[in-house]
Design goal:
There is one protein chain. By secondary structure, the protein is mainly beta. The protein has three helices and 30 strands. Strand 3 and strand 4 (38-43) form a beta hairpin. Bound molecules: alpha-D-quinovopyranose. Alpha-D-quinovopyranose binds next to loops.
């Protein structure tokens, strides 16, 4: 079932629509056509009121000034591009640089800030909405016009399925993700660092102090980045490692072992388990990379229902191509050509 309501309005008066997708198990996910933002994700709980497992805000204004991308679709290029520079077919490009002289998440006017054209695809079992966005040639410095579609589907298996489609009229780069911060105790409960995490990745891409990949695809063995066994997040954050110092926690791309180029199937990649083990979040994807970000920077950020978000309040599982791919020929390519259609699939499953 889907209910649609007006959540608020943009500065120019454009209405921001909210879609509430509910399945027959009582799971509800609220999604805005502003940035495709996942605002609330309610898990039924027989002991008390529903648990809202994602961080978010209660107003459009808060989302428009948010530099943490709470719940948002990110693009044209999720994560970083070193100094916003890359070369495609011998042509040099320079995008908007909005963090430490790098391009982060598609620039200062990325897809998270846009109103996506929205429609209900299915209002019955497996409720689904379609969001569409056209990004013109030169948008934030990226070449080519790109037509983007995202389909959100809430299944009866309590999975939120996110399908990313894109096509372009000139060779460009495309790397979308969703930037939800999960806390399985509730968005306004204590830090998510009380949870444990597993990531099936034998390698990760270390960064320099500017969060730009060095280009190395490094084994995780004998390091805090070996999350193949279920590992307490506190144990990772408390470890001594230069990479953890650079990011003040986890903010790294993991190279998923299950990745198969051009696969259209979502393979199991990661999970997070709440401290009391009552809730489990599993992540499945066809993408090669997974950015794990432990919200290291939050400091008294006011969220929904006046919640106060502190460091490690949530954990992001940003499925993606690798950061700065256009500048590393050894990374899976993010290039999209006019005769190709991009297809990304990520599923977030909640077991409760
Ligand atoms: C910080 O480094 C992190 C990014 O990975 C994250 O996406 C952003 O905050 C919201 O810049």
């Amino acid at each position: 079932m889907i209910t649609q309501s007006v959540f608020g309005s943009m500065p120019d008066g454009t209405a921001v629509e909210q879609f509430c997708l509910t399945n027959n198990n009582g799971v509800s996910v609220e999604i805005l056509n502003l940035g495709g933002i996942i605002r609330r994700w309610l898990i039924p709980n027989d002991k008390k009121q529903d648990i809202d497992i994602v961080l978010g805000f209660d107003s459009v204004a808060d989302y428009l000034i948010d530099d943490s991308y709470l719940g948002a679709l990110v693009g044209r290029y999720a994560n970083r591009i070193d100094r916003g520079k890359f070369t495609l077919d011998g042509i040099d490009f320079r995008t908007d640089t909005n963090q430490n002289d790098n391009c982060l998440h598609g620039g200062s006017q990325g897809f998270n800030n846009k109103i996506w054209q929205s429609s209900i695809l299915s209002n019955d079992v497996n409720p689904a909405i379609l969001l569409q966005l056209q990004s013109p040639d030169g948008d934030q410095g990226f070449p080519g016009k790109i037509w983007c579609k995202v389909i959100y589907t809430l299944t009866e298996q309590n999975r939120l399925k996110i399908e990313y489609f894109a096509s372009c009229d000139q060779t460009t780069i495309y790397n979308p993700t969703n930037h939800s911060y999960f806390n399985l105790s509730g968005h306004n409960d204590g830090p998510a660092s009380s949870h444990s995490i597993q990531v099936l990745a034998s390698h990760f891409t270390p960064t320099d102090e500017r969060a730009i990949p060095t280009g190395e695809i490094k084994e995780v063995d004998n390091s805090p980045f070996d999350l193949r066994p279920l590992t307490p997040i506190k144990q990772v954050l408390g470890a001594e490692h230069q990479q953890l110092k650079f990011a003040n926690g986890l903010d790294h791309n993991f190279c998923l072992d299950a990745y198969q180029p051009d696969s259209k199937l979502a393979s199991y990649a990661a999970k997070m388990v709440s401290e009391n083990k009552n809730l489990v979040l599993k992540v499945y994807t066809n993408m090669p990379g997974l950015q794990i970000f432990t919200a290291n920077h939050f400091d008294n950020k006011t969220g929904k229902n006046d919640a106060c978000y502190q460091a490690h309040q949530g954990v992001c599982f940003e499925t993606q191509l690798y950061p700065d791919s256009p500048n590393h020929s050894n990374f899976p390519s993010a290039t999209l050509r006019p005769n190709q259609e991009f297809y990304g699939l990520t599923e977030y499953e909640v077991l409760f």
